[in-house]
Amino acid sequence: MTQNNATEESQANAKTRRASGEFVRGISGFRRHIGDPDVPAEPGRYHLFVALNCAWCHRVTLARNVLGLQDVITLDVAFPNRTGDDDAVGPNLWEFAPNRIASLTGAPLAECTGETGTGQGLRLAKNIYQREGSDEQSVPILYDKIDGRIVNNESAEILHMLDAQAEALGSTRQNRPHLVPADPEARTAVEALNERIYVTINNGAYKAGFSSDQAVYAKAFEAYFDTLRNLETLLGEDRPFLAGATFTEADLRLFPTLYRHDPVYYVRMKLNGARILDYPYLWRWLCRVYAMEGVAEAGSLIHCRQGYFGRSWNGTIPLGPITPSYPEAYAQPDLARSI
After folding, report:
1. Does the annotation count 54 as an active-site position?
2. Rounded to an integer, what is the distance from CA 228 to the centroid of its chain?
3. Annotated catalytic residue within 46, 143, 198, 206
4. How far does Cα 29 stand from its chain's mean position?
5. What is the span of the domain harbouring residue 246?
6. pLDDT in tens, 280-314
7. Among this protein's residues, is 112 annotated catalytic?
8. 191: domain CATH number?
């Protein structure tokens, strides 16, 4: 398979890099596609397993919502904290636990569900993989309810197939966006944006936040903010979206990270060079995307705060920012400082 950095990270010397303190993201093992002969595009056939704090899952829930597929692709949501050391199966596993109490709220999280996709009421995402003899345990998972098999667990490929097969899957949304442009020149521009956004922003945030090597962190930090400055300039060219007049895959890929930046990543990922609020064009872009139909419902900052802080450091979850508060701030494009 040809390496595609806009989809996944190079695994060259991964063991050595991890041992030296670098965060290296693994590769997903299930790579079938809706539209293949054994994976027909049919309304109501497919199911998603996600966690709303996970930025990679957020790509998929965004695609499902902006493409108008909420009624034809069912969804289960895991609790944002994984299992602890006291779990009978083991720690660090995604769990479908609708009655689990969130330390941030002192109550269950309304979005969390039991597992309904397999019909077996499984507790862990790991159990879904074990049914197919796999030791993977990640989300998102795209699942075929008819065949009872995992289709794909690579977020970039899932959003591509939802986009390509939206009509056949049952979307009736008028004027839905086309995430991958048909025009070759426009598609090339989007692919170039995807590449930089993945390396420096999406995966770059994790390089900064989860690497224990100071030099790796510093390199990721600089690349992250260099790209933000570049995108700020790009959006300043009188364009509403990254590739021009229409919302594309590049916008969808960027949104989950920037949505998390001010209230979560600024602290948790040590990306405290600036807030998105300090970039007027990026802030207004963020608010513009947030206002699109289905976008606000595709994520949850309560899940993000609980997930990112509730299992790290001492488990205490920051209560701010207070001024402005998020996500309410995303409905206020004029909060950006004057240009």
Report:
1. yes
2. 18
3. 206
4. 18
5. 184-335
6. 999 999 999 999 999 999 999 999 999 999 877 68
7. no
8. 1.20.1050.10
